[in-house]
Amino acid sequence: MFNHLLLIRLLVQVVEDLTQFYKETFSNYQTTKQEALKETLRGIHFGLNCCGPTGTVFDGANDICPKKEGLNILVTTSCPTAIDGIFNNKLHIIGGVGIGIGVVTVRSVTKRRTDVTPSLCSL
């Protein structure tokens, strides 16, 4: 149980750290216009299909965002929301993997104890 709470806290911290990294990178790009920051943001934007910290055309990130047409220009997901969504949508999968690992660990420890016990009793 404690491991699951620790895993959830770790995931929350990862989401917060990634969101903070994105916001700092975006802010630094707005002030310096460095090419490396531009490519980093472009990779994030295209990978998560998001645009800017607010998801509006007012972010000034049109040159590094996925191209939209028609009314989709006005409906864009902000990158902090997309980062949060990735982890929230996959949380049940991550939890299932954690539970599976826990079950395998408990079964292997239990099996090991039953394998060792008969040999100790025969002495």
Please describe the topology of this protein:
Blueprint: H1 2-32, H2 35-48, H3 79-121
Protein name: CD9 antigen
Keywords: Cell adhesion, Cell membrane, Disulfide bond, Fertilization, Lipoprotein, Membrane, Palmitate, Secreted, Signal, Transmembrane, Transmembrane helix
GO molecular function, one term: integrin binding
Q: What do you see in this structure?
A:
The chain has 123 residues and is mainly alpha-helical. It has one domain: Tetraspanin (Cd81 Antigen, Extracellular Domain, Chain: A, Orthogonal Bundle). The chain has three helices and no strands. Helix 1 (2-32) crosses helix 2 and helix 1 packs antiparallel against helix 3. It starts with a helix and ends with a helix. Residues 1-17 form the signal peptide. One of its GO terms (molecular function) is integrin binding. It is found in: Cell membrane; Secreted, Extracellular exosome.
What class would the helix/strand composition place it in? mainly alpha
Any idea of the CATH class?
A: Mainly Alpha
Tell me, what's the shape?
Answer: elongated
Oligomer: single chain
The CATH superfamily is known as Tetraspanin
As a whole number of angstroms, the C-alpha radius of gyration is 23 Å
- Look at the structure and give the mean pLDDT: 81
